[in-house]
Amino acid sequence: MDVLKRLSRFLAGAVLPEQQRDGGREIRLAGLIVLVGTLTAAVFHLAVHLTTGKGYPYDTFLFDPRGTFNDFNSVYHMALVYGPPHTTDRVYSTPLHLLMTYATALPDVVVWMIFNAVFLATLVAVVWYGVTRRVGGRRLRQAYTAIFVALSYPVLFALQLGNLEMLMFVLLAAFAYLHYERKSRWSWVPLALAIAGKYYVAVLLVLYVRERRWKELAYTVTGAMAVTVLSAIVLAAHSGFTVPQVLGNTRTTLDGFGAYATNMGAVQHGHSLWGLFRLLNMYSNYVVTGPNLSFCYLLLCLAIFAWVSVRVITTDLAPWKCFTALLVAGLCLPIQSHDYTLVHILLPLALIGAYGADSRHGRRAAILLGLLLIRADYRVLIFDVTSSAIVYPLVCIALIVTCVTPDAAPQVVEARGDAFGTRRFAFRRNRGRAVSADDATISVASTRATDTGGERP
């Protein structure tokens, strides 16, 4: 018990300097959720498998072991055989397909190792220099870095399948670093590449609208289009298709994603609101059927995204809130969004860890972000679909609502003393603590003196 007590105090950062508490508390909270949640999921599935002998999805919280590295193997094969008269199947988008076409010059094992090495190096850098920056001393940072890197469910899921979402994480990490840390005007470059790779990333363009950075907005849109067209020209020369055919194959690929999304197999290991939408419609005896279901969902997504965009643009929100709200909307609104995309959740945590989020919304967001980094498939609902298909979309919506809600402005409310000379107190509502009314008066006077260039009392 003494060992467990010492471990808990160590992970909780029992004694921290004041400058490490803002943001550090939130990250430690999210890290403890990941530690306990992932270990609980592993023990639960192992126990179920040993006691019942059941296979997937009872025996693992990850993907079916028979499909290990399946995503990487399939896109590598697509790049090998693409072109007439073989196949029109494409790797997500034209730039990613072109990248995989050049990658086939190397053995698949070598390419897989390079992709994983780049992803893991970026992941460790994001967690070490961003997420754990304020959690405490070096040993404490090392402990939490190990937790987020080795125990986060989306990280394990992406590595198990070898999905190219790992490259998207590298590009979005570069964008976040240039945009928030370096304040660079070149932040549009990785964002344009990411949008050209997977289109849902375009939701982050709203950040440039919010900041009135019209040049970067134009550069990003133009850059993404230019990369797509140039990739199509080069890919046409390699494959034997014409440029219009290469671009037309993009529509075929998107139609394939849409067709797969109608299969319940796409709901498992997914966090799209579409999965929850379908499950609710199924449990309500198919109130909406056929194309009407897709149309209703499209209207719902447009309404949610419009609301989030308006709140981000017009409301005074912290930068991490704007980034998180848009990113999570981009993750949960597409009709197909598998859990490896949740690896991007570490980027909002990096903003909180690097710049702080000392508010009740920061703590609430940390809990929700932590929940998105663990598996919640403790009950099979139908076929291979588990409870996580309901939990994840609800957590995403709660996280969006939290992020677009502004913190209460600091207001000082005085409770004056009565006839018996009771001491007056001023209560700061956003901090939840009481300070002397005289101290509050001095604080206000100091602020005014600083603003006018005068001396503090």
Identify the notable features of this structure and list them briefly.
two-stranded antiparallel ribbon; 2 domains; disordered C terminus; 457 residues; 19 helices; 5 strands; mainly alpha
Annotate the secondary structure layout:
Elements: H1 2-12, H2 24-52, H3 70-81, H4 94-103, H5 108-131, H6 138-151, H7 153-161, H8 165-181, H9 188-197, H10 205-210, H11 214-239, H12 243-261, H13 273-283, H14 291-314, H15 319-332, H16 346-355, H17 360-371, E1 380-382, E2 385-386, H18 388-403, E3 412-415, E4 425-428, E5 433-436, H19 437-452
Antiparallel strand pairs: 1-2, 3-4, 4-5
Helix pairs in contact: 2-6, 2-17, 3-4, 4-11, 5-6, 5-8, 5-16, 8-9, 9-11, 11-12, 13-18, 14-15, 15-16, 15-18, 17-18
Structure description:
By secondary structure, this protein is mainly alpha-helical. It folds into 2 domains: 2-403, no CATH class; 412-452, no CATH class. It is 63% helix and 4% strand. It is built from 19 helices and 5 strands. It has a 3-stranded antiparallel β-sheet with strand order 3-4-5. The protein has a two-stranded antiparallel ribbon with strand order 1-2. A hairpin with a 2-residue loop joins strand 1 and strand 2 (385-386). The chain is globular and about 55 Å long. The protein starts with a helix and ends in a 5-residue tail after the last helix. The relative contact order is 0.12.
Ranges with pLDDT <50 over ≥5 residues? 13-20, 410-457
CA distance, first residue to last residue: 52 Å
Q: Report Rg.
A: 25 Å
Write down the secondary-structure element order: HHHHHHHHHHHHHHHHHEEHEEEH
Structure classification: mainly alpha
Helix count from the secondary structure assignment: 19
Question: What is the total number of structural domains?
Answer: 2
Please tally the β strands and state the result. Answer: 5
Q: What is the helical fraction, as a range of percent? A: 55-70%
What fraction of residues sit in β-strands? under 5%
Mean pLDDT: 82
Q: What shape does the CA trace take? A: globular
Largest sheet, strands/sense/barrel: 3 strands, antiparallel
Strand order across the biggest sheet? 3-4-5
